[in-house]
Each structure stands twice: as C-alpha cells, then as structure tokens.
UniProtKB/TrEMBL annotation:
Species in which this protein is naturally found: Streptomyces tricolor
One Pfam family recorded for the sequence: Polysacc_deac_1
Domain of life: Bacteria
CDD domains on file: CE4_NodB_like_6s_7s
Protein name: Polysaccharide deacetylase family protein
SUPFAM superfamilies: Glycoside hydrolase/deacetylase (SSF88713)
Residues of the NodB homology domain: 21-203
Length: 203
C-alpha cells in the first residue's frame, strides 16, 4: 500500500477543530425506540446524528424514518455490530457495504459517515469503509449514560468541538429513559455554556 492511498482513507477523529463552544451529539445502535425522545428533541431543536446497526433497527425502520423526517442524519454503524478488527477485509466490507445498501433502500440514501462498533478498527476497516463510499469515521471524546458521564481525556471536561456519544437505550438497559439521558446531557452542556451543533455541518 503506498502512502498516497493511505492519505485518502476516511479520517478517524474524536473532536472537530473549532474555537466555538459547541459539542456534537451522536447516538448509537438503535435498540430503544422511544417516541417521547423524538418529541423532546424536536421541541427543543437539539441536533444529533444517529449511527444505526441493522440488527437493532430492522424491526422498526419506521421509527428511524420519522427521525430522519425531523432533520436527523442517519449514519452507518454496520449490519450486526461486530468487533471489526477480528474480521477479514471481505467480511468487514460486507458489514459496512451491506449496511450502506440497507440504508439506501430504507432511508433513500447511503451515508458518507460511519462509526466502527466499540470504536475498534484497523487498516482494513478504513479501506473497506472507503470502498463502500464512506468519507468520515468519527469516534467520540465523551460518553453520556443515564446516570453518569465518562471521559477519554484526563481533564474530564468538555472541549470545543468534542463529539459526545450516547446510546438508544431505555429501562431495559439502564435505570431511566432516553428522555432522562438527554436531560443529563443537556444539563451539563448548557451549564458549561456549550451549544449543540450538527456534526455534518462541520465535516
Ligand atoms: Zn455501537
């Protein structure tokens, strides 16, 4: 593999360079499909990006079509949420391109943004993603749970341009609803003087 080709691979990043006090909200997987969450986010006009895995959304594509109709960008998070570095190049390509095809069919377009499950990837992941039409592979710098935050950086605080992760989870997975989870996210972000921006607008 020559250097030029490596340079063209989708970039992986946890923060978007900016001086503005903004963060980006990304929500992964798709297990919980809470109508109150859709209502809350649309009433409060909070932008977010959804990274979807087919095995969790195939039982109710309609929920995510409603989300898309509210202006949310739906992105690729593989067909079955595997640990990608444990797979061959061809297997990884099937996971990523397969999800591109599902999204084209169900939501009208194949995304250009992809997040590897668990944030785990190798060179084959990025080469496969590129072959499937992916341009960006954002990870995250902080993760919100319904009862706490987790940080990747030692300073345990938000920075301008940080990407924040949470999950479509409800009472089956943790002690609260999506609405409770969003309340925790918004409380900290607004208390620290940040606004929430749309990731796609800054790529
Ligand atoms: Zn995931």
């Amino acid at each position: 593999m020559d250097g030029q080709e490596e340079e063209d691979l989708p970039p992986v990043f946890t923060t978007v360079p900016t001086k503005q006090k903004i963060v980006f909200l990304t929500i992964d997987d798709g297990a919980e499909k809470d109508p109150d969450f859709l209502r809350m986010m649309s009433e409060l006009k909070v932008p977010y990006t959804a990274f979807l895995s087919n095995y969790l959304i195939e039982e109710d594509y309609g929920y995510f079509r409603r989300m898309q109709a509210l202006g949310v960008t739906l992105d690729n998070h593989t067909l079955t949420h595997p640990y990608l570095p444990g797979l061959t190049y061809e297997e990884q390509k099937d996971e990523i391109c397969g999800m591109q095809a599902v999204m084209k069919r169900q939501f009208g377009k194949a995304p250009t943004v992809f997040r590897p499950p668990y944030g785990n990837y190798n060179g084959d992941t990025l080469r496969a993603a590129k072959a499937c039409g992916i341009k960006y592979a954002p990870l995250w710098d902080e993760e919100v749970f319904v009862d706490h935050w987790e940080y990747r950086d030692w300073d345990r605080s938000l920075h301008p341009g940080d990407i924040v992760l949470t999950h479509f989870r409800g009472r089956d997975d943790w002690d609260g609803t999506m609405v409770d989870d969003m309340r925790r996210f918004l409380n900290k972000v607004t208390r620290e003087g940040y606004a929430v921006a749309r990731l796609e607008d800054y790529l």
